[in-house]
Amino acid sequence: MTREAGRSRGVAVLGSTGSIGTTALRVIARQPGRFHVVALTAFANSALLASQEAATQPSYVGLVSPNGKKPPASWRIGASALVEAATRDDVDIVLNAVVGAAGLDATLAALEAGKRVALANKETLVMAGELAAAACARGGGEIVPVDSEHSAILQCLGRRDRNDVRRLIITASGGPFRTWTPAAIGGATLADALRHPTWSMGRKITVDSATLANKALEVIEAHFLFGLPYESIEVVVHPQSVVHSMVEFVDGSVLAQMGVPSMELPVLYALTHPERVRDDGVPRFDPVAHSPLTFEPVRLADFPALRLGLEAARSGGAAPAVFNAANEQAVALFLEGKMQFADIAASIDAALAQLGSMSGRDKVSLLAADAAARAHVSARAERN
Ligand code: NDP
Ligand code: MG
Prior knowledge:
Strand order of the largest sheet: 4-3-2-1-5-6-7
Shape: globular
Number of strands: 11
CATH superfamily of the largest domain: NAD(P)-binding Rossmann-like Domain
Low-confidence stretches: none
Helix content: 40-55%
Mean pLDDT: 96
Radius of gyration: 20 Å
Distance between the termini: 51 Å
Bound molecules: NADPH dihydro-nicotinamide-adenine-dinucleotide phosphate, magnesium ion
CATH architecture of the largest domain: 3-Layer(aba) Sandwich
CATH topology of the largest domain: Rossmann fold
Number of domains: 2
Oligomer: single chain
Largest sheet: 7 strands, parallel
């Protein structure tokens, strides 16, 4: 990708109406002359999309599924909007803030087209990390993570050689059930699961943070982003969400990246990496106000979704795609009130037992594994 100094860079914000999307628009608005919005896409929230269009004046607006009011004639309608937005000539950076596997094609197309992908949509990498790497190699694109843990790791690594790294230590807040007994977790309601202690996020990732499936997704994401084997990637619970992750080097030195729990910083860094630019919009870090910082082991036995995700990671092949799709489908049913909290992990377990060894690493096979896992979870939920 060309990086001419002084030129304002065009950003396509996919999923602009979501938690990360709206954060990104706030961050970009604070950097006039450096970044400008050229494309916006949403799934169905046309009212917010229209007000974002008025505020940012993009050259492209896409809506996947208009429900109700007729959208403006200038908007592109349908699922192809994501790839269209991601591959436009006036786009330098694609900020993929779509939730779930629906973001896959846009990520791959943007990488093939040589764009920087500022990637919040971690499901893309979990499902098809090898395809994303191949698309980077072919098209010259690059992935810069938006996820705060991976942004932290990238910042700690700097330009150092990967051979200097002994271990990645990914921090987890522990979610709302960190201190709950297994019996209480089993009876958790939707409202309980949506009450995240440190982060305000979209509903799907908030539930993933309650089951800790999110940490499994993040371990797989780290494996593909940084090329480390799973034995070298650990998870530790850090309830304050101030240390965003750590890197241990071969000499035993450990670097951590810290900051207030705000996604504005990792979003901005994904746009500017490896440079840093001034931004006074994020609350300043105060070590005394944020103390004490504590760490504890993760309760793997009480959060089976994490254990299942780590097992799927090690199995490789289509297993991570099955894990991801089963989780997406189960969480969707949980959010609709059609599944109990404990059934999310049980559904993933059953789907992996049935489909985890599906073969094939190409896109067609991965999409088939994804579809089979979703169907498996839905059928199981209907039986129960
Ligand atoms: P939200 O649910 O808040 O937003 C999702 C966005 O994607 C919305 O703009 C939504 O449009 C759009 N969207 C949903 N489904 C589709 C679809 N099928 N096709 C196209 N667009 C769709 O999610 P978040 O912002 O919380 O999360 C986005 C991604 O970032 C996820 O992968 C998440 O794991 C990751 N992430 C989020 C963090 C956070 O702090 N929120 C932190 C780290 C990672 P509409 O509004 O119209 O429905
Ligand atoms: Mg994260």
